[in-house]
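for ur thesis appendix - ABC transporter permease. copy paste whatever u need, i formatted it the way the template wanted (i think)
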Amino acid sequence: MKQKYIYGLAGLLLLLLGWQLGTILLSQRLPMASMLAPLKTWESFGWLISSGEIFPHLLASLKRIVVGLSAALLIGVPVGLLLGFSRRLEMLCTPSFQLLRMISPLSWMPIIVMLLGVGDLPIYFLLAFATVWSLIISTASGVKNIDPQWLQLGKVMSASRKELLCKIVVPAITGHVLTGLRVAVGIAWVVLVPCEMLGVNEGLGYFILDTRDRLAYSELMAVIVIIGLIGWALDSLIRLALAKGGK
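the 3d part is after this line
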């Protein structure tokens, strides 16, 4: 375990070194690139935190993530259960789902904005659309991996459908759903930033555009670092839940 942290820290230090060398080389051709250096970024990072400037944007982004993922869970898990238990339904839906899954969510932005207008609603839709597929697939996979003997045992003991679902199916698929949720969080966090660059006045994506327009490049880099740290934290929380669920 100790070795794991040592190697992880070494990797981060190498990343930091590469960042510094990259800005030095780039600033020789473009002096403004010196604003992207780690030290300048750290100073802006501290100011954004101490002044509270970043928190309204961070909270707005997290709210959109929660709403989008909640919608994806409410749709993806039930649909995955149906596909897992019904072979015919799976054969009927799989080609269409695979086709839709391969379309970039961002390609829907012009159509969704035309239909739903600007604001949070189209962002919620795009986040849910982007993440629902991993939840459907992981849930269906979890259902297929349930030992049939457990279901048969429940039926022999005269368990109702609700009892089979709550006592056997849900515990059996929880790990798969969490794995799908981990993938979904990564997708949502990546999709969120470009979505927030269109038609909203708060959020991390909006703040990146704002820093660009103000030529505040050290703040821009600080926001990029914050995006990475928050994404890392969200992923770590789900990995922790997976680890506890496996015990």
